[in-house]
Write a structure and sequence with these properties.
mainly beta; Immunoglobulin-like
């Protein structure tokens, strides 16, 4: 035996004079049989490697020489004794790569879809879940166990309104001895839809724990099921009333106040107020009283204590009445000097007994499709509350990015439930300042005038519009005062600064170029002086700014960012005399 690897053994022998070839035989034990594989080795080779072995495998090899005129018709010598050899130990197994891009989607009340990127050499994947920062346990993927062959798991059997994190690892096939399971890759936490179980409600003895959830025109109340199936439920619906204190549940003696149309249910969905005819709308408030009832052994009807919960539909997204338009417009928060939006205000109508959670989502104005949803992408959290109904409170966002679209999201919440999110008005902040403006003149001197044009160019950026109609450009020149001075006038030549941009000027159309945007000063014509030095100079000023197509602002009519200016000097030669 002359060499080994973790998957092969090589044997060598001394050559035999006159041998045309050799026949070798391999066996896993020292007893060779006719069923053991044989090999023909053509002289003058005097070695053979047996491959495709496992690590740490012992084998035996023997050889005999053959003479004759053809390898297919050899006369063989006796076999040598078998010589043993052992393959080398296999290399240590390495972990598979960890799954990447673990993300969640398809969030429901009892399920969340978990996805990840495929891992090379993975046979399957294991998925675990963690509820509200607790222990990691196996996820139930598609109603089965936590092992999946693909790159997605629909984790089911989850509790509504509960925060879950998920982690995934890749597992090799049992026959793959080169790899072990990968490290875990973990997703961010995401909450299932719906309302979680809450603390016991007021107005009862904790016999029932009422929770609720809502959208803009319905409220669904939930309560605990009774362990005794003979126990049923009755409920009464409460309107909020006008008193600062919410009305109490009616007495059992009040006719038609209590309903028993869903005796064995543990939830009721309301789309109308207590009169069963007035529809709920965004911003509605509704109360529910629930009590258990049963018949005792003496056939007497018994009633349990009352439990009560107050709920609200999703908040009304309309701006409250009575708020001056100047307070609502973000344009009033645009700094007149820097042309930056300093703050955005939203006004929310509040009802007593609820906290109103306000969050925001944002995206660049250039790509509004990236503006996310209130449920999954909103960030930050500000709570508003009031001691009276229909109160208006302001939510102000003052940490803003340039040329960004902002949407505020609000929902009502209390210790018993959460409403759905309501999207408020979307506002845009002012664009930024265009980049440096370059210029290329094209002028020529005529008999009496210097004529031509100047091409101006500037670049685009993420804080600026992507289309040329998102810009305003104009040009000015000081040729009149420069000529007058050259002709011997006493008035100074006009100095052109950014303040000139507020005047009318000569409008220019902005066009898209290969590297950004551009516009032209065309039709330039400067009179040559007759009694001046050989030349005088004319300054051409270009002004360009980005504008915002935001109809929510009324002042100015077209909101805009700061001006960017550039100048170009044109020399006008003296007329010959």
């Amino acid at each position: 035996m002359t060499g080994t690897t973790s998957s092969s053994i090589t044997w060598s022998w001394n050559g035999v004079e006159g041998a045309l070839g050799y026949q070798g035989q391999f066996s896993t034990d020292a007893t060779f049989t006719d069923s053991d594989p044989t090999f023909i080795i053509v002289a003058p080779a005097t070695s053979h490697t047996v491959s495709n072995l496992a690590g740490n495998v012992t084998g035996f090899f023997r050889v005999r020489s053959g003479t004759g005129t053809s390898l297919t018709d050899l006369t063989y010598s006796d076999w040598t004794d078998g010589v043993s050899g052992t393959s080398a130990a296999p290399p240590a197994a390495v972990p598979l790569g960890a799954p990447g891009n673990v993300s969640t989607s398809g969030v429901g009340q009892s399920s969340i879809t978990v996805s990840w990127s495929a891992v090379d050499d993975a046979d399957h994947y294991e998925v675990e879940q963690q509820a509200d920062g607790g222990s990691w346990v196996d996820a139930t993927c598609g109603g089965e166990d936590n092992e999946v062959d693909g790159t997605q798991c629909v984790a089911g059997g989850l509790d509504r309104g509960t925060s879950y994190a998920f982690r995934v690892r890749a597992v090799p096939a049992s026959s793959n001895t080169a790899n072990t399971v990968s490290a875990w890759s973990t997703s961010g936490a995401v909450s299932t839809a719906g309302t979680p179980a809450r603390d016991p409600v007021t107005g009862g003895d904790d016999e029932l724990t009422i929770t609720w959830e809502s959208d803009n025109d319905s409220i669904t109340f939930f309560w605990d099921a009774a362990s005794d199936t003979r126990i049923t439920h009755i409920y009464a619906v409460l309107d909020p009333g006008t008193d600062p204190l919410r009305p109490a549940c009616p007495a059992l003696t009040v006719a038609d106040a209590w309903k028993d149309d869903m005796p064995y249910a543990v939830a009721v969905r309301r789309t109308q107020q207590s009169d069963d005819s007035t529809a709920l709308a965004a911003g509605s408030v509704l109360g529910l009283c629930v009590r258990r009832t049963w018949t005792d052994d003496d056939d007497n009807v018994q009633y349990g204590p009352v439990s009560v919960a107050w709920a609200a539909t999703s908040p009304d997204g309309a701006q409250p009445t009575g708020i001056p338009a100047t307070q609502i417009q973000p344009g009033t928060k645009d700094d007149a000097q820097t042309r930056k939006t300093n703050a955005i205000d939203w006004f929310v109508t509040l009802d007593q007994g609820f906290t109103y959670e306000v969050r925001t989502v944002s995206a660049t104005v250039a790509d509004p499709s990236e503006l996310g949803s209130c449920a999954n992408d909103a960030t930050g959290s500000t709570n508003l509350s009031s001691n009276t109904d229909n109160a208006s409170e302001r939510f102000r966002l003052s940490t803003l990015s340039t040329y960004t679209e902002y949407k505020a999201c609000v929902r009502a919440t209390n210790g018993q439930g959460d409403s759905g999110w309501t999207e408020l008005v979307t506002y845009q902040t002012l664009p930024g300042q265009p980049g440096s403006v370059g210029s290329t003149p094209d002028v020529e001197t005529g008999a009496a005038n210097v004529t031509g044009s100047i091409e101006w160019s500037f670049g685009a950026s993420a804080t600026l519009p992507e289309q040329p109609d998102g810009y305003e450009a104009k040009t000015f020149d000081n040729s009149a005062s420069a000529l007058a001075a050259a002709q011997g006038g006493t008035d100074p030549v006009e100095s052109l600064t950014v303040n000139k941009c507020t005047e009318t000027g000569t409008a220019a159309t902005v066009n898209e170029t290969g590297s950004g945007f551009g516009f032209s000063s065309t039709g330039l014509s400067f009179t040559r002086a007759t009694n001046a030095e050989r030349t005088y100079s004319v300054t051409v000023l270009a002004c360009v700014r980005a504008k915002l197509a935001d109809a929510q602002r009324t002042s100015p009519a077209t909101p805009h960012g700061p001006w960017r200016i550039a100048t170009r000097t044109v020399s006008v030669t003296k007329l010959a005399q």
